[in-house]
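Lab manual, section 2.4: Encoding a predicted structure.

Procedure: take the sequence of the chain (251 residues), apply the prediction step described in section 2.3, and record the output as structure tokens. A sample record is shown.
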Amino acid sequence: MYDMGTRERVLALVAQKRSLNSVSRETGISRAAIRSWQTRPAPLRSTHCPRCQDVPGPPRDPGAYAYLLGLYLGDGCVSPVKRGVHSLRIACADAWPGLIDACAEAMRAVMPGNKVCQVRQQGCRQVTSCSKHWPCLFPQHGPGKKHERPIALEPWQREIVDAHPWEFIRGLIHSDGCRVTNWTTRTVDGETRRYEYPRYFFTNLSDDITGLFTAALDRVGVEWKRANRQNISVARKASVALMDTHVGPKH
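Recorded output:
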């Protein structure tokens, strides 16, 4: 028998599109066992959830979950709506209809069969879905603002983020980031010329969430700088090109 941490690490390797043969050689676990874990994934924990009394299962779509986790850490909250049921709400600006659609799609992928609705508010829409399991899937929920309390990922969340770093980065950028065009002037042969260059910014008051963002950037080889305590900048040409390929501007 293998513990849950071992199963999660092995499945994270498989999620990186590696063959069962290579994962089996690296871990010493048979292909048959790995294949069975793919079809019967382990629960998030081995005991019943003290809140809902169920044994929480893993997200149905890990990539969609990584994206939704990024959105949640920026502009989301989990709150009770009635006995045993909680709502996940992500605030999405009306200026980005593509983001609203992507958020709703990710919610449906993570919790198939649950209704997703949009609540209109001034300047934004609250993309919302109700389930008793949202607190299980987003254990970072709690009273108060996120930047006023510790934010850390559970081991099973780290496995998913490590396997799907770009989806996680995309969710964080879509919530608290942007792609902008900066400009500067230079004098060449007595003539003043204007130069434009793109860059990405990520802004969050929580040092913990900013740390999760920069750790994910390090994992995918994106160079970044801290513009100030709350702002992370990605400006180097090669790194901006990587971000454009995997994230792109909001729409």
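Check your result against the sample. Strands lie at 76-82, 85-93, 116-121, 124-131, 177-188, 191-203, 225-228, 231-234.
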